[in-house]
């Protein structure tokens, strides 16, 4: 079976230095893959590279990103536009800055349906209503007329999930979609993402630094540090039996209410120094 | 008791209420809240967004004037004390803010930011003093010349902590100080906070929505909902046997880094949708 996303030896950097170092990972159809690491690990850069929205300063110097066998990096812009946002969609981190504050939810939800799926206004509205219903928003017709600031954080994130699924993408990249939410809302939103993903058979690339979230929703995981893949495998295996010392340190640093004395251990500085040496060589 | 709130209520103007002339109607943010914090003690203030935990933290510092009830600092009621009466108190109570990006002036150097805090209280703000303060929070003296944007998120939060402890306070309100940081940085910053707390005998009000962190750090915990305290007690006891379904739900909603089949499908037992839905 061809993986839906197959990243091969991806290397990228700015003038100041490398950001991704020979990153390879693949995600199969219907699978949820976690990209885990702290800030600067390169997880968001990978996500942006797949979405074709890398900032101007970052250049890809080697490697391929294959989407269903097609190299995204070799595609001409018109063909790329056919895929991005349609076959590959995004659930962004911050629902407040990702929605246009001056436009109603309904207008923002129907944009993609009209422009990319060629629906008429009434078809798009009907589809948007059913999408809002799918993400468990009560009174979707009311929400369609609202502005983003009139909704709670959890509601805004639901709207963005509806938007991400609206064109039936094959791949969705979720960039820390629950970090801004309260724990109870986080759980509901995670469940919603998982249910939608299963129902649509969508492949999910889940960017996060929270190993608790990874353990509950991701089939496989990739641990990154300094733009390098340190460990990769089934989530159940890695969480139960992390092999790389950095993965072990990340688990020890995670807060746990059930084992307060064995959690929140800072990553040892010696380990960080060793990682930096290893990466530089 | 260092700080004690007795039947505290707080009303603030309703910013969503549009008026042309006259006053905005007021909303009751805190309802009959009682709380005490002893010297050297850490109390967690926990709740969802809108529960009033930040408002309570700010009221404890007398950044807000309570509408009803008493606020005692070392036994003296400061609920309605005027600015002049509060002046000597200001040095002794400090706040660390959630987002160091927006609470540090981007046009000032780190040295300048800390010097201002010292200067305002007529304290020594020479370079060696500032270097010593930075050293306490694990920052090099060279950080003095840097601007906030030149530091990482973890380093910026260290500056926020440095500014608060520079005045050698007795009581600090830490408002979601690690919620924007990733796990490894979070562990470092909390480690620093624990060390300073022990060295300086600080009393802490630790505002957080993350019960896992609260379990690790706090002696006692106060669970808030809708401006009221719904549960209060020693942290270990509250976690071992929460008295309210709400606390139970908050604890059960935390994803643990271990495989728990079916956890995601477990229904919240108080299946209350958040109030601010639409």
Write the layout of secondary structure elements.
The complex is a heterodimer of chains A (281) and B (278).
Chain A: E1 5-14, E2 17-27, E3 32-36, H1 43-51, E4 59-67, E5 70-71, H2 77-83, E6 88-91, H3 95-98, H4 105-115, H5 121-134, H6 140-144, H7 153-165, E7 171-175, H8 183-200, E8 203-208, H9 211-217, E9 220-225, E10 228-234, H10 235-240, H11 245-253, H12 269-280
Parallel strand pairs in A: 3-8, 3-9, 6-7, 7-8
Antiparallel strand pairs in A: 1-2, 1-4, 4-5, 9-10
Helix pairs in contact in A: 4-5, 5-7, 7-8
Chain B: E1 3-13, E2 26-37, E3 42-46, H1 53-60, E4 68-73, E5 76-77, H2 83-90, E6 93-96, H3 100-103, H4 110-120, H5 127-136, H6 153-165, E7 171-175, H7 183-200, E8 203-208, H8 211-217, E9 220-225, E10 228-234, H9 235-240, H10 245-252
Parallel strand pairs in B: 3-8, 3-9, 6-7, 7-8
Antiparallel strand pairs in B: 1-2, 1-4, 4-5, 9-10
Helix pairs in contact in B: 4-6, 6-7
Main attributes?
heterodimer; A: 281 residues; alpha/beta; six-stranded mixed sheet; four-stranded antiparallel sheet; 10 strands; B: six-stranded mixed sheet; 10 helices; 23% strand; disordered C terminus
């Amino acid at each position: 079976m061809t993986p839906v996303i197959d990243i091969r030896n991806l290397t990228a950097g700015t003038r100041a230095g490398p950001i991704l170092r020979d990153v390879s990972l693949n995600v199969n159809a219907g699978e949820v893959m976690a990209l885990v690491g702290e800030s600067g690990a390169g997880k968001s850069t990978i996500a942006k590279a797949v979405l074709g929205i890398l900032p101007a300063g970052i250049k890809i110097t080697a490697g391929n990103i294959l989407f269903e066998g097609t190299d995204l990096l070799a595609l001409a812009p018109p063909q790329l536009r056919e895929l991005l946002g349609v076959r590959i969609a995004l659930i962004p981190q911050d629902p407040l800055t990702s929605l246009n504050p001056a436009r109603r939810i309904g207008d923002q939800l129907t944009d993609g349906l009209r422009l990319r799926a060629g629906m008429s206004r009434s078809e798009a509205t009907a589809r948007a209503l059913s999408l809002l219903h799918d993400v468990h928003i009560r009174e979707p017709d009311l929400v369609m007329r609202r502005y983003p600031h009139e909704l709670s954080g959890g509601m805004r994130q639901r709207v963005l999930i509806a938007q991400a699924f609206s064109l039936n993408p094959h791949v969705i990249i979720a960039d820390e979609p629950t970090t801004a939410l309260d724990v109870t809302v986080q759980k509901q939103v995670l469940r919603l993402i998982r249910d939608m993903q299963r129902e649509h058979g969508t492949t999910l690339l889940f960017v996060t630094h929270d190993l608790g979230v990874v353990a509950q929703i991701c089939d496989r995981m990739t641990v990154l540090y300094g733009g390098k893949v340190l460990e990769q495998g089934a989530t159940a295996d890695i969480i139960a039996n992390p092999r790389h010392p950095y993965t072990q340190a990340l688990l020890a640093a995670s807060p746990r209410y059930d084992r307060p004395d064995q959690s929140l251990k800072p990553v040892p500085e010696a380990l960080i120094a060793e990682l930096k040496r290893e990466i530089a060589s | 008791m260092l700080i004690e709130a007795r039947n505290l209520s707080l009303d603030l103007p309703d910013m969503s209420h549009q008026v042309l002339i006259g006053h905005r109607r007021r909303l009751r943010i805190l309802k009959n809240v009682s709380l005490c914090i002893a010297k050297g003690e850490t109390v967690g203030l926990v709740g969802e967004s809108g529960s009033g935990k930040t408002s309570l933290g700010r009221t404890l510092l007398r950044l807000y004037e309570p509408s009803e009830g008493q606020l005692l600092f070392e036994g003296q009621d400061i609920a309605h004390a005027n600015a002049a009466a509060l002046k000597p108190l200001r040095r002794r109570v400090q706040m660390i803010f959630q987002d160091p990006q927006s609470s540090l002036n981007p046009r000032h150097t780190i040295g300048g930011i800390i010097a201002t805090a010292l200067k305002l209280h007529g304290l020594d703000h020479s370079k060696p003093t500032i270097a010593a303060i930075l050293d306490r929070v694990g920052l090099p003296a060279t950080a003095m010349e840097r601007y906030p944007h030149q530091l990482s998120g973890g380093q910026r939060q260290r500056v926020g902590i440095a500014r608060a402890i520079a005045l050698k306070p007795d009581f600090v309100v830490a408002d979601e100080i690690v919620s924007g940081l990733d796990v490894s940085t979070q562990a470092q910053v909390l480690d620093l906070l624990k060390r300073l707390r022990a060295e300086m005998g600080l009393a802490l009000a630790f505002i957080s929505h993350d019960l896992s962190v609260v379990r690790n750090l706090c002696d006692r915990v106060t669970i808030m909902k809708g401006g009221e305290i719904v549960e209060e007690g020693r942290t270990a006891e509250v976690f071992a046997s929460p008295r309210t379904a709400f606390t139970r739900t908050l604890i059960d909603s935390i994803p643990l880094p271990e495989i728990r089949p079916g956890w995601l499908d477990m229904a919240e037992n108080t299946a209350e949708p958040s109030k601010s839905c639409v």
